[in-house]
Specification:
It contains ten helices and 20 strands. With 445 residues, it is an alpha+beta fold.
Length: 445
């Protein structure tokens, strides 16, 4: 306790006990040396701090002896349970304990809100009085790049083999098939819900969904049969459409095409950058302008991407079949409620509103990063021969936690066939590691 704790008569404002000073609000109005009649408790940093805006920094999740989720407790209570050997640690991140004795298993209703998104997922779990968990999951969005790289290596290997009959007619997509990148994002939503249901007695899940009319976004006046007639309707090919769209002018120099001057089609967003063949992404140029564009590294304005909109339209119906008793919300509802509550725009705040939060005590948000669990990579042999693929999955993955001499460190990776681990740009033998914690596909920011 501080030495100033003995002072009982200090001139501090009565309406803000958490202010650690000896000046009051009336001092801002008149020049006086003190505020009459104002007394506070001790000038201790731990006294009268009831107006925290961030909420509790961490909670400890509790499981019953049967593995059922109970209401979480604070760190002090969990420490007492562990010290008395009435509970044992299940996981470190998030910190979860399991009771060793039979209890009544009384729980409250916990509602979970999910702010679904293409790059980020916000989540929030609330009870009647406070928020129990909140944060944002940042998706890695590298599935498409990994598949492209794997396709390149696979074609290189197959080109070195003897000719074989093509096998392209024996492929069949299963019912409910989704593109791999979309499937991974969707599975991440389900995993977040599944992981929190293991630790909290969640009774309902509400997800914000959206249905975008992309043709309506591009052309607000579209209606009726025009939905079936795309941009190419009535044109012989893409070149004729682009020529009519630009009225016979080059999109770089804005000069008309002559009879002997050939026209070239250019991707505004290149195919190597995941650019599409849609008409919105194509430009018609003179041959010289096209060469000049690539030689000088010039860029034409790329069209707006509708990948997030398409993704939300795809997954909105799958939630109904995979999540029982699902409740849905919409963006305009979240917007109105958030403005009424006077909350800032964040993914976890939207999830708080989606879950039905109003005046509950907020929880300190956490940031979770999605990472690749396996480290299957292509590497060169030490003797410089043909590349080989490392198929072995080592025990320590990047961003896993390791303990060396009682200190916790974050691992960057391993080398020397997994016999050494890289920590803070230093190579340490794996024999010095006392224990390891594996994050899996989710890790702290």
């Amino acid at each position: 306790m501080q030495q100033l704790a003995k002072r009982r008569k200090t001139n501090t404002p009565t309406d803000a006990p958490q202010v650690r000073s000896n000046c009051g609000l009336p001092l801002n109005k008149e020049e006086t040396l003190s505020v009459a009649g104002s007394k506070t408790s001790a000038n201790n940093l731990e006294v009268d701090l009831h107006q925290h805006t961030g909420g509790p920094k961490a909670v400890v999740y509790v499981l019953s002896i049967d593995g059922l989720p109970l209401m979480p407790c604070n760190q002090a209570k969990a420490r007492k349970l562990l010290k008395a050997k009435k509970a044992c640690v299940v996981t470190c991140y998030p910190f979860t304990v399991q009771l060793n004795f039979v209890c009544e298993n009384k729980v409250q209703d916990v509602h979970m809100g999910i702010d679904s998104g293409f790059k980020n997922i916000g989540f929030s779990c609330i009870s009647a009085n406070k928020e129990l968990a909140s944060g944002t999951v940042v998706l890695d969005a590298k599935t498409s790049d990994r598949l492209t790289e794997r396709r390149m290596y696979r074609r290189g290997r197959r080109n070195k083999l003897w000719y074989r009959q093509p096998r392209f007619l024996n492929r069949k997509k299963r019912d409910g098939w989704l593109p791999p990148s979309t499937q991974r994002r969707y599975d991440t939503h389900l995993k977040i819900i599944r992981e929190f249901k293991k630790r909290l007695p969640i009774t309902s899940v509400t997800i914000e969904v959206a249905n975008f009319d992309i043709p309506k976004i591009e052309n607000p006046t579209i209606e009726g049969v025009e939905y079936q007639q795309g941009d190419m309707y009535g044109y012989q090919n893409m070149r004729s459409y682009l020529m009519a769209r630009e009225k016979g002018y080059c999109q770089l120099c804005r000069k008309a095409f002559s009879k002997g001057d050939p026209s070239h089609i250019h991707h505004c967003k290149e195919r190597s950058e995941a650019g599409s063949n849609r008409a919105k992404n194509l430009a018609i140029l003179h041959k010289k302008c096209h060469e000049k564009l690539h030689k000088k590294g010039l860029k034409l304005p790329a069209p707006r991407s509708y990948k997030p909109n398409t993704y939300m339209a795809i997954i909105r119906k799958k939630f109904w079949s995979d999540i029982p008793d699902l409740k849905v919300s919409y963006g305009y509802i979240t917007f109105v409620k958030r403005i009424e509550l006077g909350l800032a725009k964040t993914h976890y705040t939207d999830a708080f509103v989606i879950a039905g939060g109003t005046m509950q005590q907020r929880h300190h948000p956490i940031d979770i990063i999605q990472k690749h669990k396996n480290n299957r990579v292509l590497q060169l042999n030490r003797k410089g021969y043909a590349p080989s693929i490392r198929r072995q999955r080592y025990a320590i993955q990047p961003k896993d936690l390791v303990w060396i001499d009682g200190e916790r460190k974050a691992a960057t990776g391993v080398h020397c066939n997994g016999s050494r681990v890289i920590i803070e740009k230093k190579s340490i033998t794996i024999k010095n590691i006392q224990k390891t914690f594996h994050f899996g596909t989710f890790t702290n920011n």
